[in-house]
Design brief:
Layout (H helix, E strand, L loop, with lengths): L3 H17 L7 E6 L10 H9 L2 E4 L5 H4 L7 E4 L11 H13 L4 E5 L9 H10 L3 E5 L4 H8 L13 E5 L10 H6 L3 E5 L5 H10 L7 E6 L7 E6 L3 H7 L6 E5 L6 H4 L7 E3 L6
Parallel strand pairs: 1-4, 1-5, 2-3, 2-4, 6-7, 9-11
Antiparallel strand pairs: 7-10, 8-9, 8-10
Helix pairs in contact: 4-5, 8-9
Length: 280
Amino acid sequence: MFNKSEHSSREVVSLAARFLAGKRLHGKVSLVGAGPGDPDLLTVKALRCIQNSDVIVYDRLVSDAIQGLFPAKTQALYMGKAKNCRRFPQQDINQLLIDKAKLGLNICRLKGGDAFVFGRGGEEVIALKQAGIAVELIPGITAGVGCTSYAGIPLTHRGIAQACTFITAHAETSLDIHWQSLAKLEHTLVFYMGITKADFIQYGLMGAGLDPVTPVALIENGCHDTQRVVSGQLAELSELVQHHKVQSPALIVIGKVVGLAQQLAWFNAENIDSAISQFA
């Protein structure tokens, strides 16, 4: 753990070295997707960036196991966000990245999942480019792909689902979802950040005509050793959340493909809790 003076010394040395070498003074920011938690799901390029950056700025969904890969010599700054606990406004994060890059440092901006899937990565790229900072994107496995795979739920399956849709149940102000369109798609729906909105999702879809017996799954701590899958029907969604005390981070998956999980489960299968119409 570096103290403030040590950070400042490293920054001054880096700035001086770049100046003497005749290089441009600004560093680079790499927006890196850390995937859904299992460190083995990091890309080779993501791991290389983690190991070679001057600074790592990471968010709440970067797992402890991945944090364990941070080099001891590298400055690591936590800039996480949580519902009802926004310690670090987005504009402050943008400015931190800009300020560090202007010191000539190379920054690994590490985000859970993929930076461009509900990760506000686009906002950070815009701010950085406007400030004249070089940016690169290193994609990661988004939770909707990784967690469903680890739960044995295929997003598409011949004869059952030809497509899938990712939806966020979180918004800065009001949540505007066209339920009628989603209810008529007849393919897999994956809701991010939806646990506290389970009743809103349940009644929105049923009110738009989606069959109340449509299979649903709640995937808690996907791709971790503590992964838990609770399954049931759409008409039970909010009750499943409450009865099984499902906590964030968790995905809500809705569609006929959920019914395949019992056959296809392979990871931590003992934590799959089939709860269809059961609340004993």
